[in-house]
Amino acid sequence: MFNRKNIFSSFIKKITVSIFQSSLLQKKPIIKGMASKQVKYLHTARLITLLTGNRNLWKNSWAAVPRLFSSEKSAEQQQQQQSQQQSENSPADPGTVGNNPADQIKKLAQDLEVLGKEVESLKEQNIQLLDKYRRSLAESENLRSRLSKQIADAKLFGIQGFCKELLDVADILGHATNSVPQEELTDKNPHLKSLYEGLSMTQASLFQVFKRHGLETMNPLKEKFDPNLHEALFQKEDSSVDPNTIIEVTKLGYKLHNRVIRPALVGVSK
């Protein structure tokens, strides 16, 4: 009698060989990429499904084999695909420069050129602003000097108009004292003498006030004629003096702090 165990094992081997051959013919691309353990598992699953006659289970086991043994590879592929999609979908940074050194050098040269132009423009603006600043300083200094001078002149010559009005009073006092004859000033005419003395004292006091405020008299008798200080009314021949010499003073001249406020009215020799 034949041994049932041997008959069953030989039957199993025949079925395995036939399944392996059919898988090589039909599923060659799949088996080519599988390992020996995967092939063994595949044949075992097909053998079981043929023996049981469940074709739906065979299809599910056949489809599950590549997913089971290639899960790591598919996960890596999915990760690579996701990274590629993210790199494609992510917007490019306009400020980034390529890895090419030539592009980097070109970009740096362009940046240096732009910065150089900005530096030149800023230098020009600085020069212009410095020039304006210096001009404004000079103008402010000139204005300050003019104002200071005007203030000082106002302090000194603020009484010029008032002094001019008093000059007529001084002239009248001078004419009054000069009109009195000196021979009449005796004890026989005490009233005339006292009047003359009063006029002389008033004139002297007025001249003191003038001098205290910077007003000085000019009596250019026997001096050379100066058109800046004197005003000639007439000329007269006089051999005793040099030509252009003042021989007569009609009105005294006055200066206020060395500024002539009234020239002396004189007569000049020929």
TrEMBL record:
Sequence ranges of Low complexity compositional bias: 76-90
Q: Which residues form a coiled coil?
A: 105-150
Tell me the GO molecular function terms.
adenyl-nucleotide exchange factor activity; protein homodimerization activity; protein-folding chaperone binding; unfolded protein binding
- Pfam families (UniProt xref): GrpE (PF01025)
What InterPro entries is this protein classified in?
A: GrpE, GrpE_CC, GrpE_head
SUPFAM superfamilies given in the database record: Coiled-coil domain of nucleotide exchange factor GrpE, Head domain of nucleotide exchange factor GrpE
Q: Which domain of life is it from?
A: Eukaryota
One GO term (biological process): protein import into mitochondrial matrix
What subcellular locations does the record give?
A: Mitochondrion matrix
Swiss-Prot/TrEMBL keywords: Chaperone, Coiled coil, Mitochondrion, Transit peptide
Name a GO CC annotation attached to this entry. PAM complex, Tim23 associated import motor
Q: What is its main location?
A: mitochondrion
Region Disordered, as annotated, extends over 73-102
Keyword Cytoplasm attributed: no
Matching entries from HAMAP family are given as: GrpE
Its function, per the record, reads: Essential component of the PAM complex, a complex required for the translocation of transit peptide-containing proteins from the inner membrane into the mitochondrial matrix in an ATP-dependent manner. Seems to control the nucleotide-dependent binding of mitochondrial HSP70 to substrate proteins.
Q: What family is reported?
A: Belongs to the GrpE family.
List the PANTHER family hit by this protein, alphabetically: GRPE PROTEIN, GRPE PROTEIN HOMOLOG, MITOCHONDRIAL
Could you identify this protein by its name?
GrpE protein homolog
Q: Which organism is it from?
A: Glossina pallidipes
Taxonomy of origin reads:
Eukaryota, Metazoa, Ecdysozoa, Arthropoda, Hexapoda
